[in-house]
Prior knowledge:
Blueprint: E1 22-25, E2 30-33, E3 36-37, H1 38-44, H2 47-56, H3 62-74, H4 83-87, H5 95-109, H6 122-142, H7 156-165, H8 176-189, H9 196-205, H10 211-222, H11 230-244, H12 248-256, H13 277-292, H14 298-312, H15 314-318, H16 325-336, H17 343-363
Antiparallel strand pairs: 1-2, 2-3
Pathway: Carbohydrate metabolism; tricarboxylic acid cycle; isocitrate from oxaloacetate: step 1/2
Organism: Desulfotignum phosphitoxidans DSM 13687
Pfam families: Citrate_synt
Amino acid sequence: ETGCITFDPGYGNTGACKSAITYMDGEKGILRYRGIPIEQLAEKSTFVETAYLLIVGRLPTSEELTRTSVMLNDFSLVHENMKAFYQNYPPQAHPMGILAAMVNAMRSFYPELTDLDEEMNNTFLRLISKIRTMAAMSYKFSIGQRVTYPQPGLCYCANFLNMMFDNDVVPYHVDQDLVRALNVFWILHADHEQNCSTTAVRVVGSGRVNIYSAISAGISALWGPLHGGANQAVIQMLEKIHKDGMTIDQCIAKARDREDPFRLMGFGHRVYKTYDPRGKIMKKMCDIVLAKVKRDDPLLDIALRLEEAALEDSYFKDKHLYPNVDFYAGIVLRALGIPTNMFTVMFAIGRLPGWIAQWKEDMADPEMKISRPRQIYTGNTVNDYIPIDQRR
Ligand code: SDX
């Protein structure tokens, strides 16, 4: 039925639900948000407009987009008392753990969602606006710099970059080409059907907990290296290849070897059995942003050669393993100056509108039931309790 996933053993535990938000064809490499191809949105839309499309179900009028942008600006500050959380984290705390906690803490500072009928309501806008501020705050605290506050004259993406990199002695110069690249990066990540973290949001949300806690569950699920954590794992893999001087042939051989822990991160996908359409766009963005920052990145050269070799290799061809969205994402983020341990946080900011849209789809369904997957029992048959003095 519509709404939350019911894992029906008849589907071999790949439960399915009905949703009207995102369409994927894993064989043909198609991805559409509310029917609009990802390629058109990446070329013509902005992240805020795409967020509106996903959550409301249609593109906004000019007035609606302006009002949304104004509200995102109005909601961009974080309660000053939340700084105390950041001040008490150990310096090595991972920003994904901090983000999951901060979003969950929002329920203690901001009102519960009341009116789902409001198409794009304040709670959604509060989350979308503040996640950006909270992410930048974790970076500033980690490098011991004073927090840079959001600026009223900057758009959503420019504000984030400014909050990350502006400081009291070296003002950050907002480059519109890099702002465009960040819009595209977040558009590509905005939703992806019933992936691991979206499923977590819907399952946790089905218990009717507040939206902040449901989203926090999605952030935690995204953190894993097989999911959103892969963008950080790809860069760490490429850095290791570069540092150790591994040849491409060695990498391919190790990735094929089931006994070898080396995995080709950024390759393979549960749904796409062809090139991830987002990966194609992300690959093109590498050249654009690197040219803009006038820097070569040796990791891009390794990634390109690794992709070429893997796509020719029988193991990867036979298993339909292609680059996914994460394979080139890290190169783009490095060129934007984002530190590696913030890569998955960047994914989370992008995926938030999709999580909200999918959560809303469930909450709007009066028939929606709590998620309660069943199991196929494989344990002991019935037996009796053995007193401890008789146990061997
Ligand atoms: C994301 O679901 C989504 O939509 C996720 C996402 C989103 O937008 O939300 O697209 C974001 O999470 C992308 C994926 C990022 N993760 C990585 O790049 C990590 C590296 N990739 C793999 O670990 C793997 O491909 C998974 C986890 C993504 C999928 O693994 P599965 O479930 O095993 O996929 P599969 O069944 O298609 O694998 C087929 C075979 C298996 O071998 P056999 O059991 O047939 O012998 O290919 C093997 C896999 O072991 N395989 C790999 C491999 N990925 C799969 N072998 C070597 N290197 C790899 N990267």
